[in-house]
Amino acid sequence: FGVYNADRMFSDISATWNGVLEDMSDVKELVPELFYLPEVLTNENSIDFGTTQLGGKLDTVKLPAWAESPVDFVHQHRMALESEYVSANLHEWIDLIFGYKQQGKEAIAANNVFFYITYEGTVDIDKIFDPVQQHATQDQIAYFGQTPSQLLTIPHLKKKPLSEVLHLQAN
């Protein structure tokens, strides 16, 4: 399985949450498995992921206090994702990720700004002639990732409440 750097491994949901809130360079992605696959939080095969610099041995992901088990965590996580609150506010997320708050003054106001080379079209790798700089730029993109393509330049419409939609269908 190779050598693991235990201090860089995902091992604690609360610590990860706090990390992304406190450190602008600590960026994480909520992978779909966190909403349907509790096994992603357990070390089913007893793999030795190593020991942290503080002496902690990595094993199953440490859950927040509100989750009784990996199954409970995934269930509550999914219920939150499918909640009316999230549904009613999804347009805000769309504006940040794909819309008008992804770049420019709206992104700055929304505290939604990332390192410049993560934005589509800001760097042309083929025009970097220094091989060291080209490799460094490619590594930065590969390890940090890129922001999605900006699809919208105006605010996304808010979802209509179900009662409003049903009312429209009845007429």
TrEMBL record:
Residues 1-159 form the BEACH domain. SMART domains: Beach (SM01026). InterPro entries: BEACH_dom, BEACH_dom_sf, BEACH_Domain. SUPFAM superfamilies: BEACH domain. It comes from the Eukaryota. This is BEACH domain-containing protein.
